């Protein structure tokens, strides 16, 4: 089982169809309040198609496997019809056709064989007689008949090849058309299961997550400005006068200065 399958080119149409459904669902739920529009979401989903498909690996692998088996069975059926048509033609049998169709099929197979054999015989005898001196009168008519049968054989082979090509193209186109328009029941069921899983487990979660990531978050709160504080007390520098006076001397009348 492929753990990371790549989305095949032929499945892109289904992917985009389911993507359209998912976009309608997601955008309707947002009711016009989506930060991304439908085209932006579509671009994101298409770019991540492989990653989204990996979400539903089991369903996708099952669908691809069943589809490949159905196509191989259809091709084998075409090859089998071609083998029966050309194999039975030599015996005059044409898959339930009438005697007229059987005779025509026998003639289509035997004409190039008989004409080619006659051409070889007549040309060989005619040129051998032409080497005899004097040349017999019948040599020239034999060579003419030989070339005539050679032309008939070539024309029969060409017509047979064209008929085979047209038949193969018709059958192949019918097989492809049948496979596209009328899938076998098991393939159709596997396709429906993959699409449902792709919607529910792949696209809807992816789109929802993309929208959630695109929603702008709340603006960060502004950083408060630092409040001014009182200036720190600085010590007084320098020399200060002492807090005492010089001793007082008494005067002559007994008073102090």
Structure in words:
This protein is an all-alpha fold. Helices cover 67% and strands 0% of the residues. It contains seven helices and no strands. It has helices at residues 12-30, 38-47, 49-53, 57-89, 99-130, 139-181, 185-214. Helix 1 crosses helix 7 (185-214) and helix 4 (57-89) runs antiparallel to helix 7. Residues 92-101 and 175-180 have low confidence and may be disordered.
In terms of topology, how is this protein built?
Layout: H1 12-30, H2 38-47, H3 49-53, H4 57-89, H5 99-130, H6 139-181, H7 185-214
Helix pairs in contact: 1-2, 1-7, 4-6, 4-7, 5-6
What is the gyration radius calculated from CA atoms? 49 Å
Question: Which structural class should the secondary elements be placed in?
Answer: mainly alpha
**Secondary-structure element sequence?**
HHHHHHH
Average of pLDDT? 76
Give the low-pLDDT segments.
Answer: 92-101, 175-180
Give helix % range.
55-70%
Large-scale geometry: rod-shaped
User: What is the beta-strand fraction?
Assistant: under 5%
Oligomer: single chain
Number of helices: 7
What is the β-strand count? 0
What is the terminal-to-terminal distance? 119 Å
Q: State the major sheet.
A: none
């Amino acid at each position: 089982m492929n753990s990371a399958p790549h989305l095949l080119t032929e499945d892109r149409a289904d992917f985009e169809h389911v993507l359209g459904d998912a976009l309608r669902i997601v955008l309707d739920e947002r009711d016009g309040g989506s930060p991304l529009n439908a085209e932006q979401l579509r671009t994101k989903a298409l770019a991540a198609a492989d990653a989204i498909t990996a979400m539903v690996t089991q369903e996708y692998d099952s669908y691809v496997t069943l589809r490949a088996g159905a196509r191989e069975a259809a091709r084998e059926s075409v090859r089998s019809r071609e083998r029966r048509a050309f194999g039975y033609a030599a015996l005059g049998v044409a898959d339930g056709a009438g005697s007229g169709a059987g005779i025509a099929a026998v003639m289509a197979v035997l004409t190039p064989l008989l004409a080619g054999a006659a051409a070889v015989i007549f040309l060989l005898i005619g040129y051998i007689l032409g080497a005899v001196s004097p040349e017999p009168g019948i040599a020239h008519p034999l060579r003419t008949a030989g070339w005539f049968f050679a032309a008939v054989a070539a024309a029969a082979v060409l017509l047979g090849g064209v008929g085979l090509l047209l038949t193969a193209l018709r059958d192949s186109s019918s097989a492809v058309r049948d496979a596209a328009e009328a899938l076998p029941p098991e393939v159709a069921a596997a396709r429906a299961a993959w699409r449902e899983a792709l919607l529910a487990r792949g696209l809807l979660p992816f789109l929802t997550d993309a929208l959630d990531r695109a929603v702008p978050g709340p603006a960060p709160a502004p950083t408060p400005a630092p409040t001014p504080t009182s200036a720190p007390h600085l010590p007084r520098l320098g020399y200060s006068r002492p807090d005492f006076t010089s001793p007082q001397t008494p005067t002559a009348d007994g008073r102090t200065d």
